[in-house]
Amino acid sequence: MHNVVEIKIETPGAAYKKMLRICKKMKDRPIYRHDVAYPARNPIIFLTGLDYAYSLQSKGIFPKVIFAAYMKSDNLYHSSLTSIRLLNLVMCHITGDWEFQFISIPIEREFGNCYDKEVYVKYCIEKKVPLEYTRSCVSDSKIQCGICPACWDRRNAFRINNLEDKTVYKYPMPQDSPYPIVN
Ligand SMILES: [Zn+2]
Questions:
Q1: Distance from Cα 135 to the centre of ligand 1, integer Å
Q2: pLDDT digits 0-9 by tens, 151-179
Q3: 15, 66, 85, 145: most buried, per Cβ within 10 A?
């Protein structure tokens, strides 16, 4: 474990978040609006990470790798391997440093990887990491909801491994995936 620095940023901005939510549900072009979600949310988060990494050079620390935690089931455009590569180019260009790497281990095909949370859950249980104290939920409830896509992925990871999930959830696990089926 390492010490962490917590940086608070508001993305998407409250001034337009409700309008973005409406856009997510629109049925027009592009047809996969749900997968656009909040389009700049994750790039803003990781560019902030880049800012921080760059700032550490003032202390004689020269980070060269920024890790995302995108997985196989992350189906939004801003969470794809293509998005990672594009943002990596942006990071290199705007810092003038072409040694910067931006990667997400679970979906790095160059390493032969394409996996989901079940790999992490299995590893953590084997190492006795108390996952019940971690949070995946993206709802605003204090207790993890248990039914949002992030909660579903988390619960499914335990289910796939046939492992006990000690996490307290607000609702029972739904039978089906919350992801929309797109034909
Ligand atoms: Zn949730």
A1: 9
A2: 998 999 999 999 999 999 999 988 777 66
A3: 66
- How many DSSP H helices and E strands does the chain contain? 6, 2
Q: What percent of the chain has pLDDT over 90?
A: 77
Q: How many A from CA of 155 to the centre of ligand 1?
A: 10
**How many angstroms is it from 46 CA to the middle of ligand 1?**
22
- Which residues have C-beta within 8 Å of that of residue 158, sequence separation ≥ 6? 121, 164, 165
Q: Could you give the CA distance from residue 17 to residue 11 in angstroms, rounded to a whole number?
A: 8
Other residues' Cβ atoms within 10 Å of the Cβ of residue 84: 22
pTM above 0.70, yes or no: yes
Identify each DSSP E strand in 50-170 by its residue range.
Answer: 65-67, 101-103
Ligand 1: centre distance to CA 95 (Å): 36
| All structural domains of the chain with their residue ranges | 1-115, 116-183
**Distance, CA of 63 to chain centre:** 21
Tokens for 73, please give them: 């089931």
